[in-house]
Write a structure and sequence with these properties.
single chain, alpha+beta, three-stranded antiparallel sheet, two-stranded parallel sheet, 2 helices, 5 strands, 14% helix, 21% strand
Length: 174
């Protein structure tokens, strides 16, 4: 599924920028169906899927680039992916340009909580990437959210509406 980090986002994830700042210059949002001012992940998916269709992009998913080399005409890539029989195959393809867009929140770099006492804590410790539609239920739970960034504020919004009690903590107090 296209969307990068948005495909692993928690249920109530929203864009922190206004929607008009989150569009391709040559593919604006449809003004007749403009998203919320701060779009939910489903609205972002819809826009990205529409852009892929509009630009007729061939998106390779569930693939791994295992080698790349520059040529005078562009780049040769070795791409590993599942073949038609479920076996792993490697194919060679040529591209004029390569854009590396793994993002700072790539799931290959899942952050681990490093707080003294976590190893002896009897409750459940989770990170935001573990919270999905079918995942964590905060209803009637006592929770604490560590952090003061956009994600922690989203968690307060999502969990605070249903949790028994909630608390938010950040470095340096409060």
């Amino acid at each position: 599924k296209i969307g990068g980090i948005w495909s692993n986002a928690y249920i109530d994830a929203r864009l922190q920028s206004s929607w008009h700042l989150y569009e391709f210059s040559d593919f604006p949002h449809d003004p007749t169906s403009a998203p919320d001012r701060h779009p939910a992940k489903e609205q972002i998916f819809h826009y990205l899927e529409a852009a892929v269709e509009h630009f007729q992009l061939n998106v390779l998913l569930s693939s791994e680039v295992v080698a790349m080399s520059e040529t005078e005409e562009g780049w040769n890539l070795s791409i590993k992916q599942k073949g038609p029989k479920g076996d792993i195959v490697t194919k060679e393809e040529h591209f004029c340009f390569v854009v590396i867009g793994t993002g700072i929140f790539s799931t290959s770099r899942k952050r681990r909580l490093s707080v003294p006492g976590t190893d002896t804590f009897k409750g459940r410790v989770i990170n935001e990437y573990q919270i999905k539609a079918a995942g964590v239920d905060f209803a009637n739970k006592t929770i604490v959210i560590l952090g003061n960034g956009k994600t922690s504020l989203d968690m307060v919004t999502a969990a605070g509406a249903v949790a028994k009690t909630d608390s938010r903590r950040r470095r340096g107090g409060g």
